[in-house]
Amino acid sequence: MKQQNKKILGFSRNVFFVGLTSFFTDISTEMVYPLIPIFLTTVLGAPVAIVGLVEGIAESTASLLKVISGWLSDRTQRRKRLTVLGYGLAAIAKPLLALSFVWWQVLIARFVDRFGKGVRTSPRDALIADSTSSEDYGKAFGFHRGMDTLGAAFGPLIAFAALPLLHNNFRLYFSFAIIPAVIGVVVLALFVKEKVRAAKVENLRLSLKPFNRQFKLFLLIVLIFTVGNSSDAFLILRANNVGVAVGLIPLVYFVFNTVYALASTPIGALSDRIGRKVVIIAGYLIFAIVYLGFALVKSPFTIWLLFAAYGLYYAFTEGIFKAFTADLVPENLRGTAYGFLSLVLGIALLPASLIAGFLWDKISPSAPFFFGSAVSLIALVLFMALIPNDNRNNADA
Length: 397
Prior knowledge:
GO terms for molecular function: transmembrane transporter activity. This protein has 16 helices and two strands. The chain is mainly α. It has a single domain (2-194, 206-386), classed as Growth Hormone, Chain: A. It has a two-stranded antiparallel ribbon with strand order 1-2. The model has no long low-confidence stretch (mean pLDDT 84).
């Protein structure tokens, strides 16, 4: 128990090592993710609509699994084993891309990768909350998102350096992505110590009934917002469409991830001081402006600025959503709550990506971004109107 209470760089031992695991895992993931839309459309010859289908199915599958794994972690009162399993599956998925010669094989590889994400995410987030005092939720989740995203920043940088050396051999390059993923699994298995908890809860049902009204309203607003927030693969395609060279795409993504990583911890700490609502409102507003920018952009230079601003949007929302959820729900329901949050995101993401692909193909490459900007403003108004100003310590309300 004393070991669990030790702090490293001001964070609990578990928060630090879970962050380190996410750092290595996201190096692996982002080594390949920015290249998948290009791989599908240029190497395999798939239409843009297939990119939306692949990403929508992959991410929706992950989100559906997150609610089940979160519920299981609450029911068994064990977070770590599911987290290790999920990261292990993500490592296995990386070489599968190297074996893909048609688009549906890429879908399988993405499915396995996101299956692993679905298994690990809710138990991991509950583990972070369990290892953190309530006044530091924003800081802890901000640190985790920052470490995760720092890894994501290095991934595209590796792609930028390695692909030319491999003569743009995508399949050979994809094979190497398993190495940092395996390191992440080892760190998690050896150094994260789970809090000793009560015996498993046999009668815990997978239901929204135990949660308060504020959490349910929050889920509804997130659902509406996500209908306009399609896969980030469309941002990558838009960058290429405007004139950013394929070889520079990993660097553009590096800019996004660097801004996100550097901003996450201070913005998370800011939400601990001023409340989550104002920070989330700012995040939604940034998203609306950035998506409008992607709709109107004409210059490759502007794409770099938009990706940097998009990193700020992530810093203002991703970790803050999880800290906000911890504010609203009791400890024994955290895994399930994070699962429902992810489920809502997944339910909306598939139609969001399909809508974006349809709008791109049938109207114009600008159309998905006009749509997303408009929907985010609707969500912003609802959030301002329906969510009280300070929900901290309100889990039992």
